[in-house]
Amino acid sequence: MARRRQAVTIKHVAADAGVSLQTVSRVINNEPNVRPAMKEKVRASIDRLSYVPSIAAQRMSGSRSYLILAINDRDRTIADWTAREGRDWVDQMLLGGMLTCAERGYRMLIELVDTHSDHVERELSGAIAALQPDGVILTPPHSENPLITSFLAKTGIPFARIGSRQGGPGIAITMGDTPNARLATQHLLDHGHERIGFVAGPEEFSLSNRRIDGWKWAMDQAGHSHDDLCTRGDFGFESGKLAARKLLTLRDRPTAIICSSDQMTLAALELAREMGLEVPRDLSLVSFDNSPIVRFTDPALTAVDQPIAATASRAVELLIDSRNCPPPGEPVTVVGELVVRGSTGPAPPHGRR
Amino acid sequence: MARRRQAVTIKHVAADAGVSLQTVSRVINNEPNVRPAMKEKVRASIDRLSYVPSIAAQRMSGSRSYLILAINDRDRTIADWTAREGRDWVDQMLLGGMLTCAERGYRMLIELVDTHSDHVERELSGAIAALQPDGVILTPPHSENPLITSFLAKTGIPFARIGSRQGGPGIAITMGDTPNARLATQHLLDHGHERIGFVAGPEEFSLSNRRIDGWKWAMDQAGHSHDDLCTRGDFGFESGKLAARKLLTLRDRPTAIICSSDQMTLAALELAREMGLEVPRDLSLVSFDNSPIVRFTDPALTAVDQPIAATASRAVELLIDSRNCPPPGEPVTVVGELVVRGSTGPAPPHGRR
DNA sequence: CTGAAAGCGCTAACAT
DNA sequence: ATGTTAGCGCTTTCAG
Fold first, then answer.
1. pTM assigned to the model
2. How many CA atoms lie within 13 Å of A67's alpha carbon, on the beta-carbon side?
3. Which of A1, A160, A197, A325 could lock onto A315 through a cystine, CB 3.0 to 4.6 A?
4. Which residue, among A172, A147, A146, has the nearest Cα to A159 in the 3D structure?
5. CA count, 13 A, side-chain hemisphere, B331
6. Could you say which residues from 314 to 343 on chain B have a Cβ atom under 8 Å away from some Cβ of chain A?
7. Given CB atoms, is B154 within the 8 Å cutoff of chain A?
8. Ordered mean pLDDT values, 10 residues apiece, chain A (353 residues)
């Protein structure tokens, strides 16, 4: 195997421009103390030779690696990819994260890490040691795993916690779960619904509780009780069916249900059909996620869109900028929006319930 | 910004194990000439200190970068991500490619490159120079772009051409387009169809023609003419509608159509409905791709599954192995399969056509 | 079989 | 404002 070396290095550029390595380095990194004339000359040489610095070398010399690591939950991600049901979380992460990285000369690398494993830290530290990224993006449920966050804090690598509002090290950045849930609830209230059920996600995800808060808040505001109207699932289809069944078999059953994931909403839709309920005539349904699938159901689902791409993009920016200016201590929020489709409508008249 | 250095380096391991750096290096790289006892001792130190080599340093010293670069078409990829219509090409690439990389200690990095740009080569060579990958995976339509392939050949970096059977440098690897098209056609022939239309993809993709070959072959075998039954689209919805219209407005219109992408099949389905044709009663439809969306149409589409994950995985293996053994000169084929769903059925009796 | 020395391409720190 | 020096962590010679 031939030993592959860089075709054109900083040395070539320096020689071509007739300056020292350092001057070239300064130009590359936009550092001060270079006369415009020199800068120009160096730039010309760089272009002529189409020189691009080796990130390995840049990393070696103690500066940046120009790599941002996005950590995703291994099992969930592989399950999504294998199921081929159109969940596009990773794609949206790439759309926002990767493109923003590219704009700034960085690259984004996806890494799958096992949450439930007892050696999360080893898995993660391995990736960190091997790649030496300049920033790490944590997605739920890693975002609040103390093993992970405290390890990352120790390394000194800036990191973002998507889906977390907790204090502590790292940049907290959420998609406005509380306001979004409020929004969804309000949409139903506006349609005259009073009994609005809520299928929350697992406690493992703190956003689950924040969504409950938003729903409760709106219900309280409207003066409707909600004591028996909250159940939980694990975001998956089966759990959603169970949770929906609990709600729909109540004596005074809800006329609308908000589910914390598309899969759970799909399950509720299926169950409603099985029970002879027509959506949205007898039951209105609001989903969370707005992944591609919700447009292909019948009726299409009204859903809270999770702005994953925008969030990933923002995270990347904050991470990269944190070299120069300290990141916000307060949680950052990138709000989603409600996309109204066919699964929500006016509450049925009292007689029909 | 604190200068971040590797927490534990090869030096620490060497000191801990009481051997020289080289011995540690040899153990890491599974090189010969290390006594089992030494190897054991070094391994123990590595575990104890949880040492992981820095890929930047490994790269610098002239060996591997442990990076595989997957090149995708910029416009198409971003369009897919933005449209959120469930196309999961990238996910499947990651599923196959990234996981296989991980098994072998490599990482996969996605890079978007503009095909139609006149500086494709600059874009690509920039990525190569910056990352120094150990292998590159080309996807259509880059796989047969001579600017790209000849540049890559010059660099000496092994690369795979997915969707290409052309000779020349690089490992050609396809998903069996000809046999797959034959399979799809045979499925329809078995159902008694004789007039089977074909909506091909753009000529820019050589696989388009290979699929036409498969269809023609099967039609010829069955003794059916196909002179007027082939049209082309660009894989997109609109083009599919146009192409399908051409076929469905023929005097002796086909009773079945095979389209070379899900979007085009969706378009054909919509057109059929508009024309008052019921699928599959009046018209059978077979799709290519089998992306998530095809299960959510009514009826669900019979489709040729493109084994993207398996192909990406195979490509990664061939690339990594090509360090040691020369890659196959012949094109590699990872065959897909036909997934039969509701959009295909028996040909309508002659009277009804 | 093992170790010492040299150097990959780049930047930080220190000259000038 | 520019150049010089040293060294990042590792592998590749080349000596023992």
1. 0.93
2. 28
3. A160
4. A172
5. 18
6. 323
7. no
8. 71 92 92 88 92 93 91 95 94 98 96 87 92 96 93 93 93 96 98 97 95 98 95 96 97 97 96 96 97 92 97 97 87 96 94 52
